[in-house]
Amino acid sequence: MAKKLNQKATFAEFYLVYAHTQRWTVPDFHLDVCEFLDNFGPLGVLMMPRGHGKSTLLEIYNAYRLYKNPEELILAQSATDADSNKTSRAVVQMLEQNPLAWNVQKERGEIKKWWVKGSSDVKHGSVHARGILSNVTGARATYICNDDTEVPDTTGSPEAREKLRYRLSEQIHILIPGGQRLFVGTPHAADSLYANLIEAGANHLVLKMFEKEARFTSGQKDIRTTFKPTYIFSGIGSQAKLLKDFDDYKITKTDTDYLIQFQKQHGLIDCYSEALWLERFTPEVMEQRRKECGTLGEWDSQYQMHNKAINEIRLDPERLIAYSEEVTWHRSNNQIQMLLGDKRIVSATLKIDPSSGKTKSDVSAAALVLQDEKGRLYWHRSVALKGDVAITDKDGQFIGGQAWQVADLVEEFKLPNLVVESNGIGGYFGTILRSVLKKRNLYCGVIERHENQNKNKRILEAIEAPLLSGFLYAHQSVLKFNEQDSPQVKQMRLYDPSITNNEDDYIDSLAGAISSEPIRIGTHNHYPSYNDSNNWQASNQYVEMKIDF
Asked: Cα separation of 477 and 469, whole Å?
């Protein structure tokens, strides 16, 4: 049935009319995007791969909103003023070239702020274009569109990410009640704002270049997937190659999966299903795009919408080997043995990194690292010590605080010694901790260590080698929090050794535990009751105890 003369077109219809004037061939997924944009509600997130037309769709959508309502007040924000100006010019052009918008044209104003015919607002422009870091105080909007506000320049450091989020939070004060906000882009950081918005309840449409994917780094010549791969890539960057069926591999369907057999070994294999936009992204184009990506993070974030930094991750948490076993204790040959599953633990190190109240250091961090007979390291606990260093009752007796929490770890794992960083508040943390340990009848030496080496150098030297060598394991409690990536995992992904203000409490304590002299597990892990006859003295050096039951 034909539309009534005064009935407005849907966005899909508006888009198809414009596409016809440009002689475009419209892919099916663009119509899915049109449907989403027509009904995303108060807050929407649209994520699409590079080169799939997301900015063009957004510009047409902005023109459509003015066509549908000339009283619309649009705040168009991009990463920079130049980018937002480009968007603004494109909206003007699309209004001019779409026959449906013949009576809604730019009437006055400059490219940063302009009005269409039919707008009665004399103060705020129909379109107000500004970079995300520019001052928009005093602006008002019924609709705010954010086009690629998350880019390397706005996410390259903790300060940049913090500033971006602050600017975005200001939009709430600009938005007229009942208005809408839309975010369009690709992720550029492990803690991508798009993921945060989705977790907060934003309506979203996430399109990947390939819907199904599987990655293999084992170097095996035979692998299995749950789907039949259409594209198989080897490597990344200049060495990347799109492998060919029959020449490089053979696929065999089994009852439960697909067996892929390669002619030779490959260090990295990525298997993908059919591409989202076959007509534009031919195999040749995809292979060239793969070669242009310097890191897996860049490829995964820009084309598969994974929340990863585009630069190389020095401390990649995906290299950690997960485990779930807990420590058990056994007596053998008059020695107490610590076991982790079937592995004997020969040493344990607990490192405490007290917080000094710095902006980027909200908690004191404690890391417990175990080591087995073969030298493998197990990041068994990573704990945030919160609150005051010590809490006392009215009689001055210790009853809680960070030092008390450390004592809980000492008691649980029967640790004979621990290490406290004495920088900052650590200068008195050790003294308080000794008093708490004595109060709780726990025999544990407290070793105080002042760190004067460059922190980034210290972290990399301690963690990177065992991580890359496959010798660093991590307990599930360290890796996950409420079924999501833990703060520890996020710190590893975001860690950038080129800057000095990383959020690194957890990985700094891990580095300290790895680099500290390991404390042997054995005869010194007996726990008698404390009395005056025991010759025990707190020390900042190792304390040996020969105590028999």
From this structure: 22
Q: pLDDT tens across 8-37, in order? A: 899 999 999 999 999 999 999 999 999 999
Question: At CA 508, angle to CA 505 and CA 513, rounded to 5?
Answer: 125
- Give the torsion sign (CA, 481, 483, 487, 489): positive
Q: Kindly tell me the burial class for residue 331, based on how many C-beta atoms sit within 10 Å of its own C-beta (0-12, 13-18, 19 or more).
A: exposed
Tell me how far apart the alpha carbons of residues 516 and 512 are, in angstroms, rounded to a whole number: 6
Q: Are 52 and 144 in contact (CB under 8 A)?
A: no
Is the Cβ–Cβ distance between 193 and 118 less than 8 Å?
A: no
CB 193 within 8 A of CB 237: no
* CB 112, CB 85: distance < 8 Å: yes
Are 396 and 538 spatial neighbours (Cβ–Cβ below 8 Å)? no
C-alpha to C-alpha distance for 278 and 253, rounded to whole angstroms = 24
Q: Is 51 exposed, middle or buried (0-12, 13-18, 19+ CB in 10 A)?
A: middle
Domains of the chain: 11-206 (3.40.50.300), 213-304 (no CATH), 317-525 (3.30.420.140)
* Beta bridge mates, 417: 445
pLDDT tens digits for 85-99?
999 999 999 999 999
How many Cα atoms sit within 13 Å of 539 on the Cβ side? Answer: 10
Strands 231-234 and 335-340: unpaired
Q: Do 383 and 526 touch, CB atoms closer than 8 A?
A: no
Structural Rg of the chain based on CA atoms: 30
Contact in structure between 455 and 511 (CB atoms under 8 Å): no
Q: Which residues of 504-527 are buried (b: 16+ CB within 10 A; e: fewer)?
A: bbbbbbbbbbbbbebbebbbbbbe
**Structure-derived torsion over alpha carbons of residues 477, 481, 484, 489, reported in degrees to the nearest 10:** -60
Residue whose C-alpha is closest to residue 33's, from 59, 50, 58:
58
| Single pTM value for the model | 0.69
pLDDT digits (tens, 9 = 90+) for 450-495: 887 788 888 988 998 888 878 999 999 999 988 889 999 999 988 8
Q: Are 415 and 350 in contact (CB under 8 A)?
A: yes
377 near 370, Cβ under 8 Å? yes
| Residue 266 in tokens | 């490959």
